[in-house]
Automatic annotation (TrEMBL):
<dbReference type="GO" id="GO:0006310">
    <property type="term" value="P:DNA recombination"/>
</dbReference>
<dbReference type="InterPro" id="IPR013762">
    <property type="entry name" value="Integrase-like_cat_sf"/>
</dbReference>
<dbReference type="GO" id="GO:0003677">
    <property type="term" value="F:DNA binding"/>
</dbReference>
<keyword id="KW-0238">DNA-binding</keyword>
<dbReference type="InterPro" id="IPR050090">
    <property type="entry name" value="Tyrosine_recombinase_XerCD"/>
</dbReference>
<dbReference type="InterPro" id="IPR010998">
    <property type="entry name" value="Integrase_recombinase_N"/>
</dbReference>
<feature type="domain" description="Phage integrase SAM-like">
    <location>
        <begin position="88"/>
        <end position="189"/>
    </location>
</feature>
<protein>
    <recommendedName>
        <fullName>Phage integrase SAM-like domain-containing protein</fullName>
    </recommendedName>
</protein>
<dbReference type="InterPro" id="IPR025269">
    <property type="entry name" value="SAM-like_dom"/>
</dbReference>
<dbReference type="InterPro" id="IPR011010">
    <property type="entry name" value="DNA_brk_join_enz"/>
</dbReference>
<dbReference type="GO" id="GO:0015074">
    <property type="term" value="P:DNA integration"/>
</dbReference>
<dbReference type="Pfam" id="PF13102">
    <property type="entry name" value="Phage_int_SAM_5"/>
</dbReference>
<keyword id="KW-0233">DNA recombination</keyword>
Length: 450
């Protein structure tokens, strides 16, 4: 029993391994049956259903690809077509990585490559599209429990990393479904169905933050430069720079170093008289619309930090040129960012321990968590926090954000990040639009101001 595919008079016979051999007479009788009461009608319906199933697969494949017999063979058997490297599960994975590199998404591409390296090492020899739940299960088991090689345990990784790798694999699987190489009925991932592969989530990070009082203590260390006498002058200078960058990350809406390195004194900075930064998050710029910008009010403590560690304001100049040190290649920038993150972590741990007596392993990610957590605890609405951090909200929501939150409101909210007495930025009523005025009145009424 086989299915015959014909394109331009050329044929491909695909043998149905699950079907038993049939005698020619019986085969012809089943194919010619017309009477609904015939005992052979159920067999006819079964065979017809198999044929329709393959027809649907080919129709779906033809919607995304130019149909050829080689392509159909690749889809049905999982065998790679000579010269068509991309016609495989691994090939699709590699093409996604290549696309990300073209879009300068170097960090994400690197994560996808690490996941692929692990998959190739522990999932076995995967040819074409011969990948299913059993293959992913085998890989997942090694990542979770490890395997013994040369007498030692290898392959075991943290749940957070395992979850990242499995999510990467899921993206590749979905792309294969979109292109017609895999079918949805064999989808191996689910966090609800216990028979399928569950993708773990990383540990919750509620404790990975510093509260407002702790952040204020760090700010005071920066202002007073009260570092231990046992530190060399050179190390004090480097630690001061790292502390300043950490605090800048916190006060600049929790942005990461990749964003800090790209931050410029652009048109918005000068148009607002040096009172605000505007930028697009590097992580989301490739898939967000132009309205998903981040506005950072330069509150007084942030200005103090900028005066110490930032470059002088010049049109389109980088605010923190020391991060990339003039590098323009994205791969080099990625390596410099990773190194600077490591430097900040090491120096922050020493500042917390040797200056303030804290037992905390503080890293750059704490700045982002602290920004969100402290504003939330201060009663700032989550929509403002989300928008300020550059989270994607959809076109219907992001449009008009700048009208919803005039700069004066941003100053008022971000001033809650530190317990530092500063002059409150006055609201210039004459400069507010009708929409901004309406929003301001609404907020005052909600807070009992009217």
């Amino acid at each position: 029993m086989a299915i015959c595919f014909t394109i331009e008079r050329k044929r491909l016979y695909f043998k149905l391994a699950s079907m038993p051999y049939q005698k020619e007479k019986y085969f012809n009788e089943v194919c010619s049956v017309t009477n609904a009461r015939s005992l052979l009608m159920p067999v006819y319906k079964e065979w017809e259903g198999i044929l329709d199933g393959y027809r649907e697969k080919v129709v779906k494949l033809g919607k995304t690809q130019t149909l050829t017999l080689d392509l159909i063979k690749t889809y049905l058997t999982g065998a790679e077509t000579n010269g068509e490297v991309s016609k495989s599960f691994v090939g699709v994975w590699e093409s996604i990585i290549a696309k990300m590199k073209k879009e300068d998404r170097v960090g994400t591409a690197e994560n996808y490559q690490w996941a692929l390296n692990s998959f190739l090492k522990y999932a076995g020899d995967v040819k074409g599209f011969k990948v299913d739940k059993n293959v992913i299960d085998k890989w997942n088991d090694v990542m979770k429990n490890g395997t013994i090689e040369n007498g030692r345990l290898v392959g075991q990784i943290a749940d957070a990393t395992r979850g990242m790798y499995l999510r990467t694999c899921r993206v590749v699987w979905n792309e294969c479904i979109r292109q017609g190489y895999l079918t949805e009925d064999k989808y191996p991932f689910s966090n609800k169905d216990n028979t399928l592969i569950s993708i773990p989530r990383g540990k919750r990070r509620q404790q990975s933050y510093l509260n407002v009082d702790e952040m204020t203590q760090l700010y005071n260390v920066f202002v007073e430069k009260c570092y231990p006498d046992s530190w060399s002058p050179d190390y004090k200078k480097r630690a001061h720079q790292s502390l300043g960058l950490f605090l800048a990350q916190y006060l600049c809406n929790g942005f990461n170093l990749a964003d800090a390195g790209r931050l410029q004194y652009n048109r918005t900075y000068f148009a607002e008289g040096g009172r605000a930064f505007e930028f697009m998050r590097k992580k989301t710029s490739a898939r967000s619309n132009s309205m998903s910008v981040v506005i950072v009010p330069i509150i007084e403590p942030l200005k103090v930090i900028l005066d110490e560690i930032a470059a002088k304001p010049e049109k389109d100049a980088y605010v923190f040129p020391q991060i990339f040190n003039g590098a323009t290649d994205e791969l080099t920038r990625r390596k410099l960012t990773v190194q600077e993150n490591s430097n900040i972590k090491d120096r922050m741990i020493r500042i917390c321990s040797e200056v303030l007596g804290w037992d905390k392993v503080v890293s750059g990610t704490w700045a982002r968590h602290s920004f969100a957590t402290n504003l939330k605890l201060a009663g700032v609405e989550e929509l403002y926090i989300s928008e300020s951090m550059g989270h994607s909200q959809g076109n219907d929501v992001t449009s008009g954000y700048q009208d919803m939150y005039p700069l004066e409101i941003r100053f008022r909210n971000n001033s809650k990040l530190l317990n530092v007495e500063t002059k409150e930025e006055p609201i210039d009523i004459d400069k507010l639009s009708k929409k901004e005025m309406k929003e301001l009145l609404k907020r005052m009424m909600e807070k009992g101001g009217i």
